[in-house]
Amino acid sequence: MTQTLSALAIAEKLLACESITPAVGPVFDCLAGLLEPLGFTCHRFIVGEAPDGPVENCFAIRKGPEGSPHFAFAGHLDVVPPGEGWTSAPFLPERRGELLYGRGAVDMKGSIASMIAAVQDIPAEAGTISFIITGDEEGPAIYGTRALIDLIRQLGEEPDLCLVGEPTSVNRLGDMMKVGRRGSVNIFLEVEGVQGHVAYPHLADNPVPKLVAMLAELDGLHLDDGTEWFQPSNLEITEIEVGNPAHNVIPAKAKARISIRFNDLHTGKALGDQVIAIAKKHGGTAQPVISGESFLTPPGDFSQMIADAVEAELGVVPEASTSGGTSDARFLKDLCPVIEFGLVNATMHKRDEAVAVDDLEALARIYRRVTLAALA
Ligand SMILES: [Zn+2]
């Protein structure tokens, strides 16, 4: 039996490893150094090349008895760049009062520390536990969780349930979990015309009015009214570009960009096709780039396990939400039901990112309860 560490002590070790996205090396050495003494086998691998890689990933698993349930934690050890103006060095964790400061304190090395602390004294006989940890969540996520899912499938070690440790709490630890996220598609629009003199429009073909009409139709689309669990899907025009410096020239080309956040009534592909058809009608083209499909784990047994654990430790009942941006749960949903629950997100991606020390330890106790319930 190894010595039990506090979530705080583990968080300090992880925060001390600089790991700006995409991450490789020391922070994963640290992770393996924490999990291997607990009986986990770490499958580490590096994929990709600059600029989006190289990326390190780790699938750590400790198998329970044959046929026992498999509960997985998922998360990322990469962090966004710290930026300027920190009170203390971003990769030298510093405790001031009740808070622990460092880049990644809440997003999401702190949560990973709580996960590790949570499983320390759970015996292997309780069931199979794994950690799905990537070094590329904050970047393009091309070589991250998707590569881990491929490995897990090759190994035949698909979990039964997966908890992602993104910082989902808003005003206090435990007030929110994410049972789903909207999908996201960005679409690049273009209309080609024929350049010419504004005084001789019959010799030119102005693409701007066509683009304006196309955007008006897109902006007027009613995608849906929302669902029981999701807000209505939303289309935003995010860029219009003609780039014409001359007042007397009809430009040759006009471009625009839209971004759609959509619920589970749509797929990125179907929305892309719909926009392509509208663009064509107005004499233009559309190039959809899907960032992620939506996911929903409808509230049920799994969300109840998390709600019960939170309520037992903190006396709060978490709201089951689908708000916010995308996360790696958009990939993990292909493996098994997935829910996100973690620390308070007020300082994520900000200067002087910090976590309340009490929250780290409380989260470890909550994660421990969830693990035991999932393996029961
Ligand atoms: Zn994150």
UniProtKB/TrEMBL annotation:
Reactions accelerated catalytically: N-succinyl-(2S,6S)-2,6-diaminopimelate + H2O = (2S,6S)-2,6-diaminopimelate + succinate
Binding site for Zn(2+) 1: H76, D107, E166
Keywords: Amino-acid biosynthesis, Cobalt, Diaminopimelate biosynthesis, Hydrolase, Lysine biosynthesis, Metal-binding, Zinc
Annotated GO MF terms: acetylornithine deacetylase activity; cobalt ion binding; succinyl-diaminopimelate desuccinylase activity; zinc ion binding
Cofactors, names only: Zn(2+); Co(2+)
Any one biological process term the GO annotation gives: diaminopimelate biosynthetic process
Keyword Hydrolase: yes
Pathway listed: Amino-acid biosynthesis; L-lysine biosynthesis via DAP pathway; LL-2,6-diaminopimelate from (S)-tetrahydrodipicolinate (succinylase route): step 3/3
Residue ranges of every copy of the Peptidase M20 dimerisation domain listed in the record: 179-283
UniProt-annotated catalytic positions: D78, E137
Primary role: Catalyzes the hydrolysis of N-succinyl-L,L-diaminopimelic acid (SDAP), forming succinate and LL-2,6-diaminopimelate (DAP), an intermediate involved in the bacterial biosynthesis of lysine and meso-diaminopimelic acid, an essential component of bacterial cell walls.
The name this protein goes by in its record: Succinyl-diaminopimelate desuccinylase
Native species: Altericroceibacterium indicum
Gene transcribed to yield this protein: dapE
